[in-house]
Amino acid sequence: MRIRRKKRQHCVREGKPLVARTAANQEWALDFAPDAAACGRAIRMLSVVDAYTRECLALEVDTSFASRRVTRVLEAIVAGRGVPQAIRCDNGPDSDDVPCPSRSPIPAQTREGADGICRILT
Fold first, then answer.
1. Among 79, 95, 100, 106, which is most buried by a count of CB atoms within 10 Å?
2. Is residue 60 a contact partner of residue 45, using CB atoms and an 8 Å limit?
3. Taking 60 as the threshold, does the pLDDT of residue 101 lie above it?
4. Gyration radius of the chain's alpha carbons
């Protein structure tokens, strides 16, 4: 006799189309990408991209990233380019290091929305 197992419940996600950007520094996309070195050691890459210009603002490679390191990278970009209106990041397990909303280097109050985008409150 076969025992029935309950099906695993998955989160319901509501897809929202991305808003078209009209100028630089409106939104930055922050992402972590895993990879492996030639010797087999696991590495991670942190990339920060301007959503309008598609310019790579930062590309950091290391074996791990602490939240302080991510904050330093964002502070360096803000010092050179100014403050973005929003920072978009996915909700993956590696996004726990992202300094949004409480440890944000952006000198304003931020709020993380349900879509994973940190917006500056004015």
1. 100
2. yes
3. no
4. 17
**18 inside domain:** no
Local structure of residue 102 (DSSP, 8 states): T
Distance CA 101, CA 63 (A): 24
Rounded CA-CA distance 25/117 in Å is 14
Domain that holds residue 105: 27-120
Total count of domains within the chain = 1
Helices of type H across the chain = 67-81
At 109, is the pLDDT very low, low, confident or very high (cuts 50, 70, 90)? very low
Q: Which residue has the tokens 């602490």?
A: 66
At residue 81, what are phi and psi to the nearest 5 degrees? -115, -15
pLDDT tens sequence across 44-86: 999 999 999 999 999 999 998 888 898 899 999 999 999 998 8
